[in-house]
């Protein structure tokens, strides 16, 4: 759906920052100076037949694309499907997740409206905070001082050529490894680590994928028809002066924005003639370390546990309490960073102090993963204890009673006893 709607949009979008005056049918913007990219996006929305629908299909599909990869990785993680011989496929899936986020961000930045301009400004600030090389890298990336002379054109080439080619390449590699290693399966009668190879792609998984495609296609069309998204005409062309509370990035970039908001301000030092902005460098280091740990986790677990065997049977999350607890802690850490991106909206909507929201989230960023780890592990161990009790004693299905006048005990179902009043 992204490819189909994106191909439609490329026929009408002008990836240029040349200044023009909007003369289209949307009256509130008529006569406003803006870039050709912004004007063409407005034309797609209000002048091209079906253009607004295709824009919203493209945006909603992109949001769900990133979400589906994230949910798939969580399923793989909590069931242990990343273990040998599938470690490399986990890394490929992680790279796909990063590429999908990059695709979304470059596409989000193309209209050159207030929100996309603010997102690019944040990226520019992050890059420039890197000592020595930051300013040079920013200059080369933007083609001059921010916002540059043709940043939209550069992002456009990344969005429609370079990144899609990489996404298709890694999807092909991912599917190739699925064919080679076959699908993992949940435990069941006759299934062992050696004889499980999974169902073939044809016809089982191909039929499922085809059916899911049409379901997802219909759902996205319905959402795009009824729920507006990225209404650039409500914000206007990029200008740093009207920025106010409420500007939010797309959800998948929220963790980066939130981490920047949660770091204490004023962390700067002067070293070797350069300003070291720790309030920018520390969040980048934390996010980078978090992503690297996610990427190499299969190798870390294999090294720590010493488990070098091949695994084709999935784990129930409760049966791997440490891994499940680590995953829950990671999800909590990500969720708090993600919530930080909406700290201003929490304060305004619930009439809270901005400092109170930030301090609460800062505390949760440290304490939340610890609490989540301990709680999740205890729940897993309790569920294991319950399973062990059931395995040893079974389920209670009846009572042995001695009825009046009976010479020997006999087994009677509970329902029969209750109906006769013998209990």
Polypeptide structure, described:
There is one protein chain. The protein is mostly helical and 423 residues long. The strands form 3 sheets. It has a two-stranded antiparallel ribbon. Strands 3-4 form a two-stranded antiparallel ribbon. Strand 3 and strand 4 form a beta hairpin. It contains 14 helices and 6 strands. It has 2 domains: 287 residues, Cytochrome Bc1 Complex, Chain C; 78 residues, no CATH class. 62% of the residues lie in helices and 5% in strands.
Name given to the CATH homologous superfamily of the largest domain:
Cytochrome Bc1 Complex, Chain C
Biggest beta sheet summary: 2 strands, antiparallel
Number of helices: 14
Kindly estimate the percentage of residues that lie in beta strands according to DSSP: 5-15%
Spatial extent as radius of gyration: 28 Å
Write the layout of secondary structure elements.
Elements: H1 2-10, E1 19-21, E2 33-35, H2 36-46, H3 51-79, H4 87-108, H5 114-128, H6 134-142, H7 151-181, H8 201-226, H9 254-262, E3 268-271, E4 274-277, H10 278-305, H11 321-340, H12 343-349, H13 354-393, E5 398-401, E6 410-413, H14 414-420
Antiparallel strand pairs: 1-2, 3-4, 5-6
Helix pairs in contact: 1-3, 2-3, 3-4, 3-8, 4-7, 4-10, 5-6, 9-11, 11-13, 12-13
Descriptors for this entry?
disordered C terminus, two-stranded antiparallel sheet, mainly alpha, two-stranded antiparallel ribbon, 62% helix, Cytochrome Bc1 Complex, Chain C, 423 residues, 14 helices, single chain
């Amino acid at each position: 759906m992204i490819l189909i709607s994106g191909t439609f949009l490329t026929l009408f979008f002008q990836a240029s920052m040349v200044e023009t005056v909007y003369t289209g049918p949307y009256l509130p913007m008529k006569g406003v100076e803006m870039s050709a990219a912004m004007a063409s996006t407005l034309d797609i929305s209000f002048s091209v037949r079906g253009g607004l629908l295709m824009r919203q299909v493209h945006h909603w599909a992109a949001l769900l694309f990133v979400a589906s990869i994230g949910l798939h990785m969580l399923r793989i993680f909590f069931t242990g499907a990343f273990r040998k011989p599938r470690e490399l496929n986990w890394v490929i899936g992680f790279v796909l997740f990063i590429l999908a986020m990059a695709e979304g961000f470059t596409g989000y930045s193309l209209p050159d409206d207030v929100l996309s301009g603010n997102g690019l400004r944040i990226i520019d600030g992050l890059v420039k905070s890197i000592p020595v090389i930051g300013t040079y890298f920013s200059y080369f990336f933007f083609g001059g001082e921010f916002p540059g002379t043709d940043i939209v054109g550069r992002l456009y080439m990344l969005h429609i050529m370079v990144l899609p080619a990489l996404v298709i390449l890694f999807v092909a590699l991912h599917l190739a490894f699925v064919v080679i290693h076959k699908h993992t399966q949940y435990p069941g009668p006759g299934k062992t680590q050696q004889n499980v190879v999974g169902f073939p792609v044809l016809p089982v998984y191909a039929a499922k994928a085809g059916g899911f495609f049409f379901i997802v296609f219909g759902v996205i069309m319905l959402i795009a028809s009824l729920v507006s998204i990225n209404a650039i005409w409500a914000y206007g062309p990029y200008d740093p002066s009207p920025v106010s509370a409420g500007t939010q990035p797309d959800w998948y970039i929220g963790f980066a924005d939130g981490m920047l908001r949660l770091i204490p301000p004023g962390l700067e030092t002067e070293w070797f003639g350069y300003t070291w902005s720790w309030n920018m460098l520390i969040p980048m280091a934390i996010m980078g370390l978090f992503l690297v740990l996610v990427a190499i986790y299969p190798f870390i677990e294999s090294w720590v546990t010493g488990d070098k065997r091949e695994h084709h049977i999935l784990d129930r999350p409760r049966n791997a309490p440490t891994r499940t607890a680590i995953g829950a802690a990671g999800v909590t850490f990500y969720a708090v960073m993600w919530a930080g991106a909406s700290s201003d909206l929490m304060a305004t909507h619930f009439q809270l102090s901005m400092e109170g929201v930030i301090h609460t989230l800062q505390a949760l960023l440290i304490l939340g993963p610890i609490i989540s780890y301990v709680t999740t592990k205890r729940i897993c161990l309790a569920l294991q204890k319950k399973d062990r009790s059931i395995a040893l004693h079974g389920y209670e299905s009846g009572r042995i009673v001695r009825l009046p006048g009976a010479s020997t005990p006999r087994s009677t179902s509970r329902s029969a006893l209750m109906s006769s009043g013998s209990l």
